[in-house]
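To: structure desk
From: M.T.
Subject: fold request, one chain
Message: Could you run this one when you get a chance? Sequence is below, nothing fancy, just the single chain.
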Amino acid sequence: MYPGRVSTWILVWFVVAIVTTVALLAVAIALVRQGMGIGRTARRFQEEAQPIVDEVSRGAQDASQHAANLPIPERHPE
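Reply: Done. Structure tokens follow.
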């Protein structure tokens, strides 16, 4: 090896390191974008489903109150 000259293997590993770093950055950016998309979708789902959830909750509360007001039938021994 001559002074000032880069070994071929060092150059190959340097290129591999750069390509790997770029690939990992691309994957990380894609994961962040997917996470943001899932967050937006979940928020939209909650906004659309909330009126239905409220209606079901009111129905359940009404049914519970109605059941609480029902008279308890007497049991007759057989």
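Reply (cont.): The chain has a mean pLDDT of 90. Let me know if you need anything else for the meeting.
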